[in-house]
Amino acid sequence: MVKIEHRSSFLFGVSFLVAATGIWTWRRRSTSCTREIRTMVDALNHPNVHIKDRQHVNKLIQNFIQGGKQKLQVVADFDRTMSRFKSEEGEIIATCHNALDNNDQISDKFRMEATKLRDYYYKIEIDDSLSKEVKYPYMVEWWTKAHDLLVDCGLTRDMISYSVKRSNIVLRDKTSWLLKELHVHDVPLLIFSAGLGDIIEEVIHQQHTMYSNIHIVSNYMDFNNQGTLVGFKGEIIHIYNKNENAIHESDYFEKLQHRENIILMGDSLGDLNMADGASDSADILKIGFLNDKVEERLNVYKDAYDIVLAADETMDIPNAIIRQVLES
């Protein structure tokens, strides 16, 4: 009888210790989680963060945290979304299409013609007084002429790596953390870009790692057997036809129907359609980077995006939200 009581007391003591340890661990994790959420909330109150409907944003983030990483996927533009808009010195960062500007293997004529195209068409792209329907044919003209220039300049496959090294394209601050953590937690990342897929892959290879969870939809170059550019594969992807591309007709989003929580990141109004192929029941948190003409365009962006990051060259806000989902 004494032995039984002794054993019962021992088991009770162990059980109490385990329970107490569990409560302590839970409290520690809970405190840590609360601290992280508070940090995220503080970040959303930063002056460069603009939210029109905070209640809607809070609800989406709460749903994403409750759903966890198993229900999460990320869809992002590349140029001036995953890459910076300006350097720390205030220099404008190159996009994929002008990554060749500092390549001394390319003729001055190419650079001059490419600059003319950008100077003319970029003003149309960011003119919010014009509708997408009006801008559409201009964007087709711009991309067609830009691609023809690349073919005419005699670009070779070997020039791509050299061009990226010579360019000032750089991933937005803390993008490396984002890429690594999405890979570690097996969260799909769709990079949907009107830029050049070959350049995007090279930038990621040179500045981080091209992980298996990354899927890129973009304009890919077509090289002949000698490695010379002869054209482009498939239809042109420009800034305002991202809802018409073949990715929406493929089974990409269908395979990810269980990942019904989508974080979408872009820097233009055309990027808002990147996840159109997702299920109608999907929740989409839209984060917009407003890089240029902030005062003029802020209200338009606030109407379009859930969260607008004005003149912010970091991934701090998306990372803060994604961290909460991954750790939930």
Structure report:
The chain is of the alpha/beta class and 328 residues long. The chain folds into two domains: 45 residues; 196 residues, 3-Layer(aba) Sandwich (Rossmann fold), CATH 3.40.50.1000. Strands 1-9-8-7-2-3-4 form a seven-stranded mixed β-sheet. Helix 3 packs antiparallel against helix 4. The radius of gyration is 24 Å and the shape is globular.
Summarize the structure.
The chain has 328 residues and is of the alpha/beta class. Helices cover 46% and strands 14% of the residues.
Sheet-strand content, in percent, reads 5-15%
Name of the CATH superfamily of the largest domain: HAD superfamily/HAD-like
Structural class by helix and strand composition: alpha/beta
Q: What is the count of β-strands?
A: 9
The string of secondary-structure elements, in order, is HEHEHHHHEHEEEHEEHEH
Q: Strand arrangement, largest sheet?
A: 1-9-8-7-2-3-4
What oligomeric arrangement do these chains adopt?
single chain
The helix content, as a percent range, equals 40-55%
Overall domain count: 2
Largest sheet: 7 strands, mixed
CATH fold call of the largest domain: Rossmann fold
Q: Give the overall pLDDT as a whole number.
A: 88
Uncertain ranges: 1-29
Which class of the largest domain in CATH terms?
A: Alpha Beta
Q: What characteristic shape results from the CA principal axes?
A: globular
Treating each run of at least 4 consecutive H or I residues as one helix, how many helices?
10
Distance between the termini: 47 Å
* CA-based gyration radius: 24 Å
Any idea what the CATH architecture of the largest domain is? 3-Layer(aba) Sandwich
